[in-house]
Design brief:
By secondary structure, the protein is an all-alpha fold. The chain is built from 5 helices and no strands.
């Protein structure tokens, strides 16, 4: 009975994660406020924007959107993977919901982080193109960090593939192939 109660308590401890996911929803709302404020700021300045400013505006909004997507994926997939299945009522569930396991969530997380890093680098390159002076040390650090993120994603993908390959049963030879003949003596 003690063993069962301990097991049940540990299993029920998954609900401790629920406030974390609701906190991410609050953070998502705060990010929406920042996005709308930024958008309004750009709308009010649109007449003074040149092409490079318009591209930087789009990159800023895309950056915020990627972070919001990332938060949503982590919130929904994390809640479903670690707490309980989300009962969405009569609403149509997005196709990916219920199919994003921990490995897929890590992959999506790394993809989003790399995209955000690439956008930050692109912003720097746009500023250089405009003639702005950029600290070369900062540019080296940003490029190095981006490279490390890419390398980390590659290592993560390779390890996930190796782990998945080890979990699969060995393939059986096709039934129509005869066994190999021994060499003539």
């Amino acid at each position: 009975m003690l063993r069962r109660n301990v097991s049940r308590s540990l299993f029920d401890a998954r609900w401790i994660m629920a406030p974390f996911y609701f906190g991410l929803v609050v953070a998502l709302l705060l990010l929406l406020f920042v996005f709308l404020r930024q958008l309004l700021n750009y709308v009010l300045r649109i007449a003074d924007m040149g092409p490079a400013d318009a591209v930087l505006m789009a990159l800023s909004l895309i950056d915020l959107s990627l972070v919001a997507n990332l938060m949503l994926i982590v919130t929904l997939a994390g809640y479903e993977n670690f707490v309980t299945r989300i009962d969405s009522g009569g609403e149509r569930r997005p196709q990916w919901m219920g199919m994003v396991d921990f490995a897929a969530m890590k992959s999506k997380l790394m993809g989003s982080i790399i995209a955000i890093s690439a956008i930050a680098l692109l912003r720097i390159f746009m500023k250089i193109e405009e003639g702005s002076r950029i600290d070369p040390e900062m540019l080296r650090w940003m490029a190095g960090i981006h490279g490390m993120l890419l390398l980390s994603a590659l290592v993560l993908a390779v390890t996930e593939r190796l782990a998945r390959h080890r979990l699969l049963p060995p393939p059986e030879p096709p039934a129509s192939v005869p066994p190999p003949m021994p060499p003539p003596a």
